[in-house]
Amino acid sequence: MRRYFRRGMSCLLMVVVSLTTPLTAFASPEFAYSAEKWATLRDDNLDFDEIADLVHEYNTTVVQNRITWQDEKDDDSDDVAQDYYDAADNIYNNITYPDDSDSSSYGSQMAAAVQNKIQADNLMEQGDESTDDNVTKKLNYDKQEAQLVKQAQELMISYWSQYYSMDTTREQKTQAEKDLAAEETRLAAGTSTQSSVLTARNAVSTAEASILSAESNLNSTKENLCLMLGWSYGADVNIGELPEPDLEAIDAIDLAADIESALANNYAYQITQKQVTNARSTTKKATLTQQEANERQAISNNVSDSYSDLLLARSSYEQALAAFELQKSTYETAARQLQAGTISQNTFSNQQTSYVNAEVTVRTRKLELLTAMIDYQWNVAGLASTS
Question: What DSSP character marks residue 31?
Fold first, then answer.
């Protein structure tokens, strides 16, 4: 419940456009979700599958767009054009040309009048060229919300990528400490030098600094993610685990069908199609018609490219899994050899480092695959680039 009120205050900062309009007027009604669903959205745990709902309910940009939309939802293309014409008329009606050419301020007054005339003419032209209406505006708001959801999903993946990579950073520090201890032992035995010990000590310091930097970056990523989803700064949020990549879903992809879905779903493409219908001039309609054709081709190409990237990410993940299994077997053998006294502690430590690195690589490749899956899915769902 504490999280719910923090969220309310966070969004409220963006919506106090009218003190007479309560925030709840722009939130989903209680019946939009079950009581159990509302409870999960209002607690301080973040699960990956909650992100879309959290953005919709609590992201300040989305809430602000929802408020703005209340004033725009009934506007047709003529209304949008009329807004430009009204603004132009207001400027025209207030243009004042100087009478006295001998006045010391004549030049500046005339320049101001000419500048205002140019501004008004531009607004009139924008009105003539305007092709937006309530449909295109709503599509733009929906596109922005979808982009924010995708951004938050990628940010959560980035959080865990940074989290896992810290295992390698910590392992590097542990190895540097072991190397330093070994150098100090050799120095005591007269087989090393102060310079070598100093170099080893600097390696430990460098590793410690890397850990501090990684922790700072991790905290920053978490903070940005939580702020996007409506939490206040510094909120104590538990970041849940990520889903496993769905390899069966990748196998089931029908690229041709997905390209058709991407065309039907694409926000920018739908906007262009509506603008073609709204265009007033033949020239404008022809320009937009060509743009529509270009966007159609770009969407198809980008979905195909993201599918190729997805297959490549899957291949890299599978290769990392195979390499990890090999390192795991070697590590387990090294552990038995160490126990039997047939290898040194240093040799075992090196093998342990290789095992940890291989494990981190698997996790990293898995997150890269998950990112590629999200990218492909969002391309199909409406966010494929139109350029």
Answer: G
Cβ neighbors of 360 (< 8 A, separation 6 or more) are 164, 165, 167, 168
Q: Residue with structure tokens 């496993």? A: 244
Cβ neighbors of 248 (< 8 A, separation 6 or more) are none
| SS3 state at 230 | coil
- In which band, very low, low, confident or very high, does the pLDDT at 162 lie, cut at 50, 70 and 90? very high
Nearest to 131 by CA among 277, 259, 260, 267: 277
- Return all residues near 310 (Cβ < 8 A) that are at least 6 apart: 250, 253, 369, 372, 373, 375, 376
Model-level pTM?
A: 0.80
Rounded CA-CA distance 87/377 in Å is 42
Which residues, at least 6 apart from 240, have a Cβ–Cβ distance to it below 8 Å?
Answer: 45, 46, 47, 48
Of 127-131, 181-185, 381-385, the least confident: 127-131
